Each structure stands twice: as structure tokens, then as C-alpha cells.
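C-alpha cells as discussed.
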């Protein structure tokens, strides 16, 4: 039997933006914290979408309409995840690696880091190693966060680490990696300083560095 989802999660799976916005408002009005909304409703819905894609029940158009519904929900949650007026505790440069256009998880990590008190420079998606290096050069002691959602783009993370080394920036920079296919073992293999599989842990990790 197919799993049953809450109306909010089902709205994401169906890519039904108006249901998503209505249901999102209801759960927020009911007192659910923005982070819990992500963890309980939105992320499981995207996982389901990925599962259906893998099982060839969904194809790229369904993936895209679900992603659009997720992005609309994020527009509402984003300001709630960020706190304002907090003194910045460090600088983070973040982006999705070259060849990869997935940005939902990266945006979430960026929002949470900002909410956690970091100054965040978000270079977007499809970011080349040179662009990351340029951005890191602007200030010593930067934390660099790399996101990849495709097994084919994961090797780009290694290229970024190598580019930092070549430019003499590696020792001054902490590199965190993440994204669905990335593992702690892979992070270690490429010489990154840390890995996490979710946005809240990414903030704790960045703070510990
Ligand atoms: C939405 C989606 C899309 C959307 C992206 C829209 C957008 N603006 O991002 C669209 C439709 C564009 C898309 C396109 C493609 N996709 Co796609 N996509 C997905 C899907 C369903 C969900 C991803 C997502 O947003 N998840 C929700 C977020 C919140 O989770 P997350 O990204 O994992 O991020 C969390 C953690 O990983 C972590 N994290 C993320 N980044 C970082 C960084 C740091 C530093 C840290 C510490 C933590 C961290 O924290 C986040 C929050 O908790 C996944 C399935 C899946 N299960 O991942 C497939 C998936 C990633 N896609 C896949 C594929 C194959 C593709 C395409 C190649 C399809 C095609 N044939 O065209 C293209 C590639 C385009 C490209 N070059 O990038 C495959 C990848 C398979 C593989 N092994 O490589 C997946 C796994 C689907 C599947 N099961 O087959 N996709």
C-alpha cells in the first residue's frame, strides 16, 4: 500500500502550490517551528519525489513541479529561518558545484547558517572551482560549504579542495561538504574538514570550526 502523507507533504509531491501555501500557513499558525516544518513535512516529501523518480513513477517534469512547490514554501520559511540583527560570528561561502543545478538543500543550509549568525556569501549553482577560490581569497578564515546532489558532480568537490591547495588557501579555509549522495567517508577521502547530512547539523559543525 502507498504511504499516506499529510496534506502539506502531499501538496509538495503533487506540485500543487496553492495547497502547499494554504497548508503551510495552517501548520505555522498551529505553532510548528519553521525548522520542524522542514524536517517533518517538506524534506520527507522531496525524499518521496526522489523515490518515485528512481522507481520511474515520476519523470523530470514531475520533479520540476514538485521542486517549484518546494521553492514557494521556502520563500515563506526563509525569512522565518533567518534571525536578524545578530552579530556575525564568521564568514561562509556556499555554492553548488560545477555541473550541478540542485539548490534547494544548499539554500536551506545557507538560510540556517545565516540564522545561526554567519555572514553568508551564496554563489548559487554550477559554481566553478575558480569562482570558489576567488570568493575565498577575499577574506582569511572563511568556511567554504560545497553542495552536490549528483554522483557525477561529487568529484568537483575534490577539484575545489585541490584548487584551494594550489592557491595556498587550504590551511586558512575550512571546507564542509554535503548533499544527498555525499558521505562522511567521501568527505574524508577528498580531504574536507567536515560533512553533514542536514542543515541544522551543518550549522553546529560550522560553529565548531
Ligand atoms: C528536486 C530535484 C531536482 C530539481 C532541482 C530543482 C532545484 N532548484 O534544486 C530538478 C528537476 C531541476 C532536478 C534535475 C535533475 N536531477 Co534531480 N532531484 C531532485 C530531488 C527530487 C530532490 C532534491 C532536493 O531538493 N532535496 C531536498 C533537499 C532539502 O535535500 P538535499 O538537497 O539533500 O539537502 C540536504 C542535505 O543533503 C544537506 N546538504 C545539502 N547541501 C549541503 C552542503 C553542505 C556543506 C552541508 C554540510 C550539507 C548539505 O542539507 C540539506 C538540508 O537538510 C532529488 C532526489 C533526492 N532524494 O535527493 C533528485 C536527484 C538528486 N536528481 C537526480 C537526477 C538524475 C537529476 C537529473 C540528471 C535528471 C535529468 N535526467 O535531467 C537533473 C540534473 C540537473 C543538474 N545538472 O543539476 C538524481 C541523482 C542521481 C545520482 N545518483 O546522481 C536524484 C537523486 C533522483 C533519483 N533518485 O534518481 N532534480
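Sequence:
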Amino acid at each position: 500500500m502507498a504511504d499516506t502523507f499529510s496534506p502539506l507533504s502531499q501538496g509538495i509531491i503533487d506540485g500543487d502550490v496553492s495547497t502547499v501555501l494554504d497548508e503551510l500557513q495552517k501548520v505555522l499558525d498551529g505553532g510548528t517551528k519553521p525548522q520542524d516544518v522542514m524536517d517533518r513535512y517538506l524534506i520527507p516529501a522531496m525524499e518521496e519525489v526522489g523515490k518515485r523518480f528512481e522507481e520511474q513513477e515520476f519523470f523530470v517534469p514531475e520533479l520540476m513541479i514538485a521542486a517549484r512547490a518546494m521553492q514557494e514554501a521556502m520563500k515563506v520559511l526563509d525569512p522565518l529561518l533567518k534571525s536578524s540583527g545578530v552579530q556575525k560570528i564568521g564568514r561562509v561561502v556556499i555554492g553548488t558545484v560545477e555541473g550541478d543545478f540542485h539548490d534547494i538543500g544548499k539554500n536551506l543550509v545557507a538560510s540556517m547558517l545565516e540564522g545561526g549568525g554567519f555572514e553568508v556569501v551564496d554563489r548559487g549553482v554550477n559554481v566553478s572551482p575558480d569562482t570558489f577560490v576567488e570568493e575565498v581569497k577575499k577574506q582569511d578564515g572563511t568556511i567554504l560549504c560545497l553542495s552536490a546532489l549528483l554522483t557525477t558532480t561529487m568529484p568537483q568537490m575534490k577539484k575545489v579542495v585541490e584548487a584551494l591547495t594550489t592557491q595556498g588557501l587550504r590551511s586558512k579555509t575550512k571546507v564542509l561538504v554535503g548533499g544527498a549522495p555525499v558521505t562522511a567517508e567521501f568527505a574524508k577521502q577528498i580531504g574536507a574538514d567536515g560533512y553533514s547530512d542536514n542543515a541544522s547539523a551543518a550549522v553546529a559543525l560550522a560553529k565548531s570550526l
